[in-house]
Amino acid sequence: MAHDKHEQVDAISGVTTTGHSWDDIQELNNPLPRWWLWTFYASIAWAIAYCIAYPAWPLVSSYTKGALGWQSRDAVVAELDALKEQRSGMTAKLAASSLDEIRQNPELFAFARAQGKAAFGDNCAPCHGAGGAGAKGYPNLNDDDWLWGGSLAQIEQTIRHGARSTSDQGHSGSMPAFGRDGMLKREEISQAADYVRSLSGLPTGNGADLVAGAKVFADNCAACHGEKGLGNQDLGAPNLSDKIWLFGADKATIVEGLTNGRGGVMPTWHGRLDDTTIKVLTLYVHSLGGDQAR
Fold first, then answer.
1. Does the pTM exceed 0.70?
2. CATH topology of domain 74-169+267-288
């Protein structure tokens, strides 16, 4: 880029140049359009007025409050209060009705599911996913395979008091660490893993000793999972024959579980959520998973 200190006039347009040129192309010194200038000045004036009227600038430990005293948080609180007031009639009906009564009232049930979906997104989705599909170690709530039972009463109990949680009314029971605690040898754990895979029709390989695995299973696992591996919801022992696996069905994962045990925690929501919110969560979660008997 070259700089010319002397003012020049473009021969074609008759406009002076800035003295700048790029590849022999002169930059004309045209004034900015008047409408653009007024718009620019108006924007500056608007920005100054806005900074004076509304919260705008951060300070050391606070921020400028604005001459109008308006706060976005106050506006949100006011809108939420108005929404609660609008919904208060239906919310009161929810609080006064049993789970079965809500299900039998289409209008009330639709309202409860909508409220439950919102509560699920705020409290449950981080573990179970926005749609309740779960993830490795977190149950899928859409498939009607329930560790602790899928009736309304059972789901409410699980939500309210959790599993292996801080509540003494929550579900208890864990998968023992058969390998780490020396209850089974490595070979026996491998045999049991092959047998467990066979229960749900998964391939076990030519070298699998299913007879030995069946004996290890009967001696150590059947007490919780049942002789045929159908599970026990009272203990939170999963059904091993339904091809639904919480932590994965590959042999290495099963061996790891048998070796080190399993025991995921479902938090207790009693005291953290009000009774009506627990009620709508129960109805929403129940509606996701195949509608087990109430």
1. yes
2. Cytochrome Bc1 Complex; Chain D, domain 2 (1.10.760)
